[in-house]
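User: Round two. Same drill as before: sequence, then structure, for each protein.

Assistant: Same drill it is. First protein:
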Amino acid sequence: MKKTFPAVETCSSVGRENDTVVADMDGTLLRGRSSFPYFSLVAFEAGGALRLLMVLLSAPLAGLLYYFVSESAGIQVLIFATYAGMKVSDIESVGRAVLPKFYSSDLHPESWRVFSACGKRCVLTANPRIMVEGFLKEFLGADIVLGTEIGTYKGRATGFVLSPGVLVDEQKAHALVKQFGDDNQPDIGLGDRSTDFAFMELCKESYIVPYNPEVKPVPNEKLPKPIVFHDGRLVQKPTPLMAILTLLWIPIGFLLACLRIAAGALLPMPLVYYAFWALGVRVIVKGNPPQAVKKASGQTGVLFICSHRTLLDPIFLSTALGRPIPAVTYSVSRLSEVISPIKTVRLSRDRATDASMIKKLLEEGDLAICPEGTTCREPFLLRFSAMFAELTDHLVPVAMVNKMSMFHGTTARGWKGMDPFYFFMNPSPVYEVTFLNKLPLELTCSSGKSSHEVANYIQRVIAATLSYECTAFTRKDKYRALAGNDGTVSEKPKQKGANKLMGC
């Protein structure tokens, strides 16, 4: 006789603070029933395009085994194709920095309503534990994560599954009994398919999550924890079709990126705007850009205060103005320096030295700075460093925003020299540059305002223009979240007394 369970919509979430809930992941906590996109993300972000191709080629075999032989066999094929030979640290890094953004965008509202109402939360999943544990514990507040364990050798994954195998069907039930014991039944069990029934029958109450492609995910503003920082190159979830399109586009996109970069680097700046449009790069200019200051006038240049989306911000600022604007940056890769059409000057992180250098550059003309110190992809502004406000009263806020359909042009974990290439590899990237009004003299430091007041005011003005949220997060917060460090690495011994900063 076929076992039936009531739908999750019938489960009350009131008064569950002392209850224990056990839930499956794919198709239960998440709307999507397939884990293929997430294996593909790990493959591409930790192993590159060739690894993604390997996973894609293994997908037909995995599907046949999954649907006609056993769930376990199909998942084992995907695990081997994705993980064999991969560094364990890279897998953990992707699980911490990349996957939460995609998982959070697919959270099932009814399952989350019940799961979040319970005081103790456990997840039983066939996915490798190393891949999902970071998201489940940090973002969903899971206390226990029971998943498939993969074998490792000398810091690398073997691609094989450890005993008791892939957690499906009876293996989930055994894992549940091992964790809670025979006499301690969880209060609520949530699953979505027949291979979940074994563990659901061990719970006091059990509910099925029916498949409904029309159900909307939990909206961003109601997520248990907002995604401020995330990493990875892929913008869209790599479904099988999207993965194929991505692999086919990469060689074409790289050639197109080289052409776009060459146009930006070799053409006179007044022509770059039109060259970009001809090559599919859209530059949208809003507001009233200030005129260039004539050196003969004796007036110092304007300091453009830009929100920071990619390291290309100053280049698109220059494109919008039709003239090259030098930029100060905390660091930029050597390759980016070579191909940059504008002058870039590195800050030393020594306050007196940097202030003197910026003042000297302003005496020569206009200058651009991104006081956040690092990029942020989401609709948030990081804390603005206040030093710039002490150096000049000629401050023009600039709101920068970009749109990418395939690749992100920033990274915290990868090689930053490829950032411009990935941005320009998008089929039709968009940069919107909005020039705001020059800061009135009464709102500057010369009128008695503190540098922090000026910096915070400019942050709020840019945030209001973009409908972004101001935060107090810093560069260190970003790199601790995504790369497990504070964004600095030691210089080589011959270069004493300095730190080399890990790009934007």
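Second protein:
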Amino acid sequence: MEVGLNNTHKFLSKIATNDGHGENSPYFDGWKAYDTDPYHPQTNPSGVIQMGLAENQLCFDLIHEWLMNHPEASICTPQGGFDFKEIALFQDYHGLPEFRSAIANFMSRVRGGRVKFDPDRIVMSGGATGAHETVAFCLANPGEAFLVPTPYYPGFDRDLKWRTGVELIPVVCESSNNFKVTLEALEDAYDKAKESNIKVKGLLITNPSNPLGTFFDKETLKTLVGFINEKNIHLVCDEIYAGTVTNGNKFVSIAEILEEVPTICDHNLIHIVYSLSKDMGFPGFRVGIIYSYNDTVVSISRKMSSFGLVSTQTQHMIASMLSQNDFVDNFIHESRTRLAHRHDMFTRELAEVGIGSLESNAGLFFWMDLRRFLKEPTFEAEMTFWRIIINEIKLNVSPGSSFHCNEPGWFRVCFANMDDATVMVAIERIKSFVHETRMLEIKTKALAKTKKQCWQNNLTLKLSSRRLEEIMSPHSPLNSPMLRAQN
């Protein structure tokens, strides 16, 4: 007996058949638009350029050079093959000791050596996605919630909610203060959750921010820590962009706050999520890290990591690479330099045609302000314009509404996942669109002016005709018998 496709859902679980993955978001729709019509300079020069993917591809030459000089780091080479059996058989979910030590060392050096990390607290996971979900499983029950400042990464709706049943409550941040998190906004979101009988279990922040490309200053972090300590809720700090900070600014990790002021809060409430996807540009290696100051969370998340371990082959290579401080320090410095150059080039070129962005100094993207291009300040108008960007300008940039931004007209633009030539193509497309838009505005204004002049001329003519009719009217004084007799 054949079973219709629409009937198969009743045989599956709610998690399998619900819409929790969030693929109906414009954020993912943009990826699909790129996948169906990808740009290529030779084979498809009019295709969609992918600017919705936060990948760091600017330093692979450094990685390639290191690999060529250290073939022993891979168990799949003659030089490293002697370790093949040992690495292939290792399956302890604690991870290779040298891997955990190398990760702890790298996390410290990314933060300028201002803070140290304990290798015994390093818990690996299948990318930051798996790390976030594991932390959510550890800290909250289905129906309980995390506060999240807006705008925030669209994937959180999948990572934290889909399989855990946890809710996310937006903490509304506004452009009037450059989207900074305020205590008032935190209290307001917390109170609204309480009024709705939703138990808040934690606050989730992304530092540096995705999509803003900014990071928290020390005083704001202290305010956030004070807030969660007072409410007795957890603070989860996503620091996966820690190594992308540019312009000479020093990123401040939550770990630094705890070391500087040890009594500021209950350390059991603090948890860090990290990965090598952004700072190193290794999203395919699926190296996610949980670093918790809570012993129980470390223990439980390590057990849960069995569902998403990093392969020992990857651990072995990463341990070899990140244990070499000279390479690590040079890579971090060079990556930041190249990111700063790309960021400044892109924003400078756009500024020349009047397109602004939020001032930023971190991340693999910037927050572009296109509010003036919307026909009206609504999210419907934002989506209409986004479709023009995708289908006519052929750029996949992500609309602010997909990041839960409360103001229409903002878009995230990724700039580190392409070469310089593609960047220039993207910039020229934007410039051409702005130029065409301005020419259309000029023509529209000229046409409106012409119509207005014609209307005024017609009005004058009508008034003149009416005046003549009045003059020639039998009732006009000019036509009176007396005046005619006088003439």
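The mean pLDDT is 87.

User: Perfect.
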